[in-house]
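Q: Please design a sequence for this.
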């Protein structure tokens, strides 16, 4: 049972076509400015970081940025999976995340994004969800440490993990949310190791991006 809140952003799990598009560098698409030395194809505020499995967006200037928590504030471009860059010492690096400070000191930046609108992800709700959630839409959480911008870094320059969760309440009928629930997550619950189940305290669900940059949004039913 999922009795502990341990969110991990949006983790890709399968593609409805049956093709393996949830695998890094198979299902991802590259994102760059496409000009010059690719120095700033992104927009981050001071102290912000890109984390693996973080929902991301594209701003009005065509730069990659962190997705907003609510659909009313902006669409979701996809899910971040990694970045390549040449660091300040001229060394080419590949990482699952990077801070604004690191990227600002780098050039030749290429991001890798899960951007297929049909991909299905798993995410954890900051609360309980039952089978009634299927077809409903949810926004991302706004609580500290659980927002689209939230994440954790393990080790010195090591792994970068999103800690974004879904809000515990579905959006109203006919309203637009950021993701739509399509099923129950298969993720093993932490810390019990048991299978995740409907009605768990912090249910893990399967979702698709509902407010997608590439698809005309369809509101919650």
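A: Design:
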């Amino acid at each position: 049972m999922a009795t502990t809140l341990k969110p991990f952003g949006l983790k890709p799990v399968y593609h409805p076509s049956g093709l393996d598009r949830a695998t890094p560098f198979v299902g991802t698409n590259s994102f760059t400015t496409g000009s010059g030395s690719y120095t700033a194809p992104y927009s981050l505020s001071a102290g912000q970081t890109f984390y693996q499995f973080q929902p991301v967006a594209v701003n009005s200037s065509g730069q990659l940025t962190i997705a907003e928590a609510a659909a009313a504030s902006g669409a979701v471009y996809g899910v971040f999976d990694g970045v390549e860059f040449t660091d300040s010492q001229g060394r080419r690096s590949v990482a699952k995340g990077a801070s604004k400070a690191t990227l600002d000191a780098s050039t030749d930046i290429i991001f890798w994004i899960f951007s297929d609108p049909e991909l299905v992800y798993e995410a954890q709700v900051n609360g309980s969800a039952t089978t009634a959630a299927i077809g409903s839409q949810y926004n991302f959480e706004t609580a500290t440490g659980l927002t689209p911008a939230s994440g954790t870094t393990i080790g010195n320059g090591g792994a970068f993990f999103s800690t974004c969760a879904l809000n515990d309440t579905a959006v109203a009928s006919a309203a637009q949310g950021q993701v739509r629930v399509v099923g129950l997550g298969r993720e093993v619950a932490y810390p019990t190791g048991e299978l995740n189940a409907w009605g768990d305290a912090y249910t893990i669900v399967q979702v698709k991006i509902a407010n997608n940059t590439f698809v005309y949004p369809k509101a919650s039913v």
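Q: Thanks. Anything notable?
A: The longest strand covers residues 78-86. The mean pLDDT is 89.
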